[in-house]
Amino acid sequence: MLILRLPDVKRVLGHRADASVYNAIRDGLFTTGVAIGQRAKGWPDYEAQAIATARVAGKTDAYIRELVTALHAKRTELLCTVKGALL
Asked: Which residues pair with 42 in a beta bridge?
């Protein structure tokens, strides 16, 4: 899995401005970033690709909000899997 920084996320989604990504996050149309440093955020590549694919397929905003919820849930599952492996 790759972690994309904001310029790469904008490229994948076709956004030109940083604010476009943050507005999508606020509106529930994109996932929140994950901390990769004290002041740095990134996004798993598969999340950006899944949302871009849904947009290309013409899915509705309601569908994409559900997708974002599912992607956040997948993060939780991954975390539980990693924690379980470490125990």
From this structure: 34
Give the global pTM.
0.86
Q: Give the pLDDT confidence of 44-71 residue by residue, as tens digits.
A: 999 999 999 999 999 999 999 999 999 9
Residues in the chain: 87
**Both tokens of residue 62?**
């309601």
- 58 phi, psi to nearest 5 deg: 80, 20
* ∠ Cα 41 39 48 (to 5°): 5
DSSP 59: -
How far is residue 4's CA from residue 41's CA, in Å, rounded to a whole number? 9
Cα–Cα dist 19/24, whole Å: 8
